[in-house]
From TrEMBL:
Entry keywords, A to Z: Aminoacyl-tRNA synthetase, ATP-binding, Ligase, Nucleotide-binding, Protein biosynthesis
Organism: freshwater metagenome
GO biological process terms held by the UniProt record: translation
Residue ranges annotated for the Aminoacyl-tRNA synthetase class I anticodon-binding domain, each copy included: 4-126
MF terms (GO), sorted A to Z: aminoacyl-tRNA ligase activity; ATP binding; tRNA binding
Lineage: unclassified sequences, metagenomes, ecological metagenomes
Protein name, UniProt field: Unannotated protein
């Protein structure tokens, strides 16, 4: 119940009906996820795989797992160092972590999911 209370404020603007909530938050429940076919196609290219590898390397050493620390780590490696646009950079991570290209805000979602599950999902998507 605590996860639901935490996620509701961040999905409020992304849903039109209450019936959309389960689809939007299902990634938070369970250790693994299934990436839908449309989203899987979006992370099968070399750039996406590189994004995921570099994201994993940037996130693994974090000792504080918060949306701010996740945001800073990913922006540094993907935007500043790789020179990617945010949509490209964060899209691959979003799909790896949530299983879909449509989800609640990425950094907050990763914080709620927890470091171990988020990193495992990124590894599995590579």
């Amino acid at each position: 119940m605590a996860i639901i209370k935490s996620v509701l404020p961040i999905i409020q603007e992304r849903i039109a009906k209450l019936s959309e909530v389960p689809q939007m938050v299902k990634f938070l429940f369970g250790e693994t996820i299934e990436i839908d076919s449309e989203s899987k196609a979006k992370i099968s290219d070399d750039v996406s795989k590189d994004v995921l590898r570099k994201s994993l390397a940037a996130l693994a050493p974090l000792t504080v797992w918060s949306h701010d620390s996740i945001d800073a780590a990913l922006r540094t490696v993907l935007i500043d160092e790789m020179g990617l646009k945010p949509r490209i950079a964060f899209g691959a991570v979003r799909i790896a972590v949530t299983g879909s290209h449509i989800s609640p805000p990425l950094f907050e979602s990763m914080e709620l999911l927890g470091k171990d599950r988020a990193l495992t999902r990124i590894k599995n998507a590579i």
